[in-house]
UniProtKB/TrEMBL annotation:
GO terms for cellular component: cytoplasm
Coiled-coil region list: none
UniProt xrefs under Gene3D superfamilies: Periplasmic binding protein-like II (3.40.190.10), Porphobilinogen deaminase, C-terminal domain (3.30.160.40)
EC number per UniProt: 2.5.1.61
One of the record's GO molecular function terms: hydroxymethylbilane synthase activity
Organism field: Geodia barretti
Protein name: hydroxymethylbilane synthase
Cofactor(s) this protein cannot do without: dipyrromethane
Length: 297
């Protein structure tokens, strides 16, 4: 809702004559209490919302880009990607401890298998426990008994203007989820007037980064249950795409860093995917199912 209000405010600034009414829609992901990586589904936070767009019950939808599948339903389009927030993951604790300074045996909460794997690779002596709920609910669970800290995206904290003590996690070890930090505005592909309005708040670099990360995600067939990290960054005429994929137990990985022409994000994604394939990413993707139970205990 905060993200939707932010988009509506930016659109109103871009076109002062436009007015908006926000409609809330409950999704499958909202009503399922299981850890995200225990759900063998794609689009669990956007399917019902995008159905409302397709059926003309609403004009457009605002999502976290990382929740949007790489292939949208027929008739819908990713109309706008506004300027991206930080893509970093952060650790939130009661006293501002960093991941490395937490005592042995500390319990860290996360709803992401990617983050769980990366935490255990960095600190095999701490515990990782699933956690659900909105951002405020998760933060309230940091009590030193059940959770000593939780890992969240910096973008969500920033958009809610939350005053919390956090420590940024190193980007080379915690490559974020594809699309993390970006918003996705989805509309009907034939609603050309609305698309023109939405394009008024699009950020060109953020769009290119989103296209590269989403293309890579599609090539590798990632999802909430396969821990792929991908982060593209534009610097002048160049775009660099970093990617990291892990086995579910965190013991094996495939890591790539490829630079190329910013105007060809899909080519960059394809070359990065090829590098990951040479390192055996398919074996990582097929092997995670066998060890998923350890994350559900």
């Amino acid at each position: 809702m905060a993200q939707t209000r932010w988009v509506a405010d930016r659109l109103a600034e871009s076109d002062p004559g436009a007015t908006f009414q926000i409609q809330s829609i409950r999704t499958t992901g909202d009503g399922d209490p299981r850890p995200l990586f225990a759900m063998d589904q794609k689009g669990i936070f956007e399917r019902e919302v995008d159905a409302a767009v397709a059926q003309s019950r609403v004009d457009f939808a605002v999502h976290s880009l990382k929740d949007v599948p790489s292939q949208l339903p027929d008739g819908l389009t990713l109309a706008c990607v506004p300027k991206r927030e930080s893509a970093r993951d952060v650790l939130i604790t009661g006293d501002g401890s960093s991941l490395q300074s937490l005592p042995r045996g500390s319990i860290i909460g996360t709803s992401s298998l990617r983050r769980a794997v990366q935490i255990r690779r960095s600190r095999p002596d701490v515990g990782v426990r699933p956690i659900r709920g909105n951002i405020e609910t998760r933060i309230a669970k940091i009590d030193g008994a059940n959770y000593h800290g939780i890992v969240l995206a910096q973008a969500g904290i920033s958009r809610l203007n939350l005053d919390v003590i956090s420590a940024a996690l190193p980007e080379d070890e915690f490559v974020p989820s594809p699309g993390q930090g970006s918003l996705a505005v989805v509309s009907r592909a034939d609603d050309h007037g609305l698309i023109t309005l939405l394009k008024g708040i699009e950020d060109a670099d953020s769009r290119l980064e989103a296209e590269a990360e989403r293309a890579l995600s599609g090539y590798v067939e990632s999802g909430c249950r396969f821990p792929l990290g991908a982060h593209a960054s534009v610097d002048g005429p160049t775009m660099t795409l970093r990617a990291a994929a892990f086995s579910a137990d965190g013991k094996k990985s495939a890591v790539a860093r490829i630079a190329g022409d910013r105007r060809a994000p899909r080519d960059l994604a394809d070359r990065t995917a090829q590098d990951l394939r040479r390192q055996g990413v398919e074996a990582l993707a097929s092997g995670w199912r066998e060890s998923l139970e350890m994350w559900n205990r």
